[in-house]
Amino acid sequence: MGREPIQSFDGAPTGKHATTGVFNTTSDFHKNALDYARVATPKIILINGQRLAKVMIKYSVGVSTMSIAFAGAGCPGGAVIGATDREGGDVTDALYTPYDYAETIYRKLGFSDNQRLARPNGVAVPLSDGGRAIRELF
């Protein structure tokens, strides 16, 4: 998302006598939008899709348990990692996020944990945005 929608939003917090505005997107922000928000008055906090997903996972908003299968790359066969409650709705053991699954795949492929990815907006980000490899799969 570029600068224009952020610039259009800029007056909204002032109209409500707010000191800060929050702008969400399920995609990502272009560098010019990030630059604009950094100097905007009142302050504008930009929340991209990855950050929004992390917050939703952290506070269990609109998320539920899921199963993932790993095979090959030296993963132990037949292993079951973690558990849910009787209804399968809540994790009771070994909670992992999609970021953890991504981090595990990157480690299995040989990428280092400090490697970064340059996005089209010019912002360099970690490959899995803070995930941790699932140790039971190594």
Description:
The chain is α+β, with helices and mostly antiparallel strands. The protein folds into 2 domains: 1-61, no CATH class; 64-138, no CATH class. 30% of the residues lie in helices and 15% in strands. The protein has helices at 3-9, 11-15, 31-39, 49-58, 98-108; strands spanning 20-24, 43-47, 83-84, 91-93, 116-118, 124-126. The chain has a two-stranded parallel sheet. It is elongated and about 60 Å long. It starts with a helix and ends in a 12-residue tail after the last strand. The model has no long low-confidence stretch (mean pLDDT 82).
The SS-based structural class is alpha+beta
* Mean pLDDT figure: 82
Describe the main β-sheet briefly.
2 strands, parallel
- Following the backbone from N to C, one meets helices and strands in this order, namely HHEHEHEEHEE
The strand order across the widest sheet is 1-2
The tally of domains stands at: 2
Number of strands: 6
Quick structural summary:
The protein has five helices and six strands, in the order H-H-E-H-E-H-E-E-H-E-E.
Tags for this entry?
alpha+beta, two-stranded parallel ribbon, 15% strand, single chain, 6 strands, two-stranded antiparallel sheet, elongated, 138 residues
SSE order and pairing:
Elements: H1 3-9, H2 11-15, E1 20-24, H3 31-39, E2 43-47, H4 49-58, E3 83-84, E4 91-93, H5 98-108, E5 116-118, E6 124-126
Helix pairs in contact: 1-3
